[in-house]
Each structure stands twice: as C-alpha cells, then as structure tokens.
Amino acid sequence: MEKIYKKLIEWIKQQVKQAKKNGVVFGLSGGVDSSVVAVLCKKAFPKNHLALILPCFSSEKDLEDANLVIKKFKLNSKTIDLKEVFLKFCDILDIDPKSKDLPAANIKPRLRMITLYYFANKLNYLVVGTGNKSELIMGYFTKYGDGGVDILPLGDLTKTQVRSLAEFLEIPKSIIDKPPSAGLWEGQTDECEMGITYKELDKIINYIETKKRPIDFNKKIYNKVILTKQKNQHKLFPPKIFMTKF
C-alpha cells in the first residue's frame, strides 16, 4: 500500500500543476473514501487544501466522523450547512424534503457540487472527487453531483482496496467499518440501494479484469453488474456532440 500511497500523492500534485491551479478542495462526508482522499490531499498540499463539510440533513455520526478526521490529520476545513438551501429549493419545486424519491434526493449532492466549485473558482483549486472503481462501474454516483469533479484519485481502486489504504493511513476504524452511505436519506446505504455487497461486487470486478473466476462465482450477480455497468456508461463520459462533418 505504501507504493500506491506515494504514487497517488505524486499524481494529485501532477494534476494540479498541469491545470495551473494552486491546490485542492474536496467534500468530507465522514465516510472512508472521503477520509482517504482528505489525507492524500493534505499530504500533497499541506497548506493549499480545503476540506468542506456540507451537511444537508446529514446524520450526526457522519458529522462526528468528518470532524474526527479533521482533528486527527489537522486539515484546513470549513462547514457549510446546506439544509436551508435544500428546503427552499424543495419548496420552489413543490417537493417533500423528506422524500426518498431519487430525483429529489439527488438535489443534495448537486448542491454540494455547486458549493465545491464556488470555492474551487475562488481559490483557483481543483475539485477532488472521492469515487472509487466499484462505484464508477455501477454508476453509483449522482451525475453533476458527486460525479461532478475534476480528478478522481481513487477511481482505479475498488472499495476493498480503499479500505486497505484507509487502514494503512490509520483512518479511524469506526469510519472504515461503518456501512457505506451516500447520505441521500435517513438509513440509506450503498449496498441496499445497489442490491449487492461491495465484497460481491469487487469479486466480480476482479474476475472481469483478470478472468480468474472466484470459487463462489454467481452468474446472476455477474450479469447484474454487467447490465448496470452498460446502463450507466453515459455517466462516465462527456456529453455526446452532434458532428456537422461526417
């Protein structure tokens, strides 16, 4: 893990330099992915980094964990509560703010994206995303929300690998072991919404990449992953452009 850790830090530095930016800004949710990104960004830019805690009816546990990471790793941070903005937006669109309807819930990560880019523009920073390979393959992120970022340092690491990196970085164990959640509504978890555990998903990803079939290979789950991957490909690429020259 030390080798990957060092390469990730250098990669972040390189991306910022190529973009002629001054540093990095990222959202800190209190989850394992954002905690790992936070430590990497702090190492890459000890002074020129900003962790934004952006609660929007978020759980107290997540806020406690985010502040725990800030305190342990001495991060530059700012907390901006988006609750009132979200409520106002829901009022304008005539939406129940407690709705578990995905279009309504996706407003939250899109409000966070707006906030991240405000500070990125103001400070001349790059927005660093927290998505990992497992999430990207399943399209498990909000388009123009948490998917609206400049760079994704964890984009080629599965959730299993991210957890191993988190252990190496000495992220608090309570964060590593916490059920992953996008915080879209109370009680929501990644695995329930995707209908597959990260352990199962990462086995399938490893099979796709190495063709080494696991002993407990499940064809039904494999087909589900492939279908979901195909369905969400549009999330991973820029908008298609009609070309006038054929």
Care to describe what's here?
The N and C termini lie far apart (48 Å). The protein has a 4-stranded parallel sheet, with helices on both faces. It has helices at residues 2-18, 32-44, 60-73, 83-93, 102-105, 107-123, 133-138, 159-168, 173-176, 190-194, 198-210, 219-231; strands spanning 23-27, 49-53, 77-79, 125-127. The protein is of the alpha/beta class and 246 residues long. Helix 1 (2-18) crosses helix 2 (32-44) and helix 2 (32-44) crosses helix 8. The mean pLDDT is 93. The protein has 12 helices and 4 strands; from the N terminus they run αβαβαβαααβαααααα. Helix content is 52%, strand content 7%. The protein has one domain (2-179): Rossmann fold (3-Layer(aba) Sandwich), CATH 3.40.50.620. The chain is globular and about 50 Å long.
